[in-house]
Amino acid sequence: MAVEQLFPKGDAPLVVDPAVQDQECQGIPIYVSYPFQGGMLDPWECKIQCDDKKQRHIVYTNGKATPCETLPGCLDYGEDHGITCTIPGGMKSTTSVTKK
């Protein structure tokens, strides 16, 4: 698979399969101090999965959440592909668990 297929150029909107959108988030939340706006963002938040092998998802300040790549991967998969997930039990305080 070519790099261009994984990371398309331009500002074209991402087309997400509804079957993978808004499933329940899995793993430990990573709370970040910025909103999700539907695309690739820096920094690489899910990188911690490479080290500790614990599944995670990212929770943003605007109440959105995206899944990290399924283990053994550790990419910000949901964020990079515009895939959101539903936070179990709803939005939690951004001061608990992991905060960036």
Topology:
Elements: H1 3-6, E1 23-24, E2 28-31, H2 48-52, E3 56-59, E4 65-67, H3 77-81, E5 85-86, E6 98-99
Parallel strand pairs: 1-5, 2-3, 2-6
Antiparallel strand pairs: 3-4
Overall mean pLDDT: 79
**Total beta strand runs:** 6
**Measured on Cα atoms, how large is the radius of gyration?**
13 Å
Structural domain tally: 1
* End-to-end C-alpha gap: 33 Å
- Main beta sheet: 4 strands, mixed
What is the H-and-E element order? HEEHEEHEE
Amount of beta strand: 15-25%
Low-pLDDT stretches are 1-10, 93-100
Give me the number of helical elements. Answer: 3
Strand order, largest beta sheet: 4-3-2-6
Can you tell me the overall shape? Answer: globular
Structural class: alpha/beta
**Which bin fits the share of residues in helices?**
10-25%
List keywords for this structure.
alpha/beta, two-stranded parallel ribbon, 100 residues, 3 helices, 6 strands, disordered C terminus, disordered N terminus, four-stranded mixed sheet
Walk me through what this model shows:
This protein has 100 residues and is an alpha/beta fold. The protein has one domain (19-99). The chain is built from 3 helices and 6 strands; from the N terminus they run H-E-E-H-E-E-H-E-E. It has a 4-stranded mixed β-sheet with strand order 4-3-2-6. Helix 2 (48-52) links the parallel strand 2 (28-31) and strand 3. It is globular and about 25 Å long.
